[in-house]
Design brief:
Elements: H1 6-19, H2 26-49, H3 53-66, H4 71-83, H5 87-99, H6 105-117, H7 121-129, H8 138-150, H9 154-166, H10 172-185, H11 188-201, H12 206-218, H13 231-247, H14 251-264, H15 270-281
Helix pairs in contact: 1-2, 2-3, 2-4, 3-4, 4-5, 5-6, 6-7, 6-8, 7-8, 8-9, 8-10, 9-10, 10-11, 10-12, 11-12, 12-13, 13-14, 14-15
Length: 283
Amino acid sequence: MRHPVLAPICAALALSVAACQKPGDTDVDRAVQDVLASDENSLNDIMMTVADPDEAIRYFRRLLDEDPDKLAARRGLAQSLIRARRPTEAVAAWAEVVRHPEAGNADRVNYADALIRVGDWGKAEAELDRVPPTFETYQRYRLEAMVADSNREWAKADSFYETAAGLTTKPAGVYNNWGYSKLTRGDYRGAERLFVDALTYDPKLFTAKNNLVLARGAQRKYDLPVIEMTQTERAQLYHTLALTAIKQGDVAIGKGLLEEAIETHPQHFEAAVQALRALEARG
């Protein structure tokens, strides 16, 4: 997303104000700089959120070529690398950010997030430990919960997930992650409740739907839950449930669910067809 009009507008504004400026009129100088800074901040926000990630990376790298010490540009580059799904490069970029003398606690949390994306849990935990407990944000507690999960510190994980859920108006992702944590511990009923909570906040979150079916299947509940789903999603959930049943030794039920998946899907469902053929070949 390019904004070629911004520079000419800002330049014209600066020239027009300067034309009627009296010598020593520092208030006017300050006003011009405030407008220019505001425009740049707005463009930075656009680049970090809605612009094409690769274009944003090029934009922030140009800014850093002009001014290598510009913290806003370093943050923008690091965030854009995350959006572009280039976590290894993002880790290096966030490391540069946190070394900047003006970096803050939010920067360190973002650095920890990037470290988790590349699987460096130990370093991520160390970075989070450097953030004071008074810095209470949704992202901080979400990451703390994930780190506690990785350490199998279940009580801490539950506490952090609960805190994170209370710090956002969109907790579906937190409930889904928390439910998956319960699923890996074998607490299938607890996981089921949390996946339902996730879908209460975001009925379209397919990951939570699939996880809900896994939690129910682990309890040998082989009927689909009453949730919002498309026809394609229904077929995919039947497939997930079928594989869960087969894994648990309920082969006849699994076969029936695969047949349901194939019949339900609006198109050819290759994965279910292959699974059914493999099952039938085993006799």
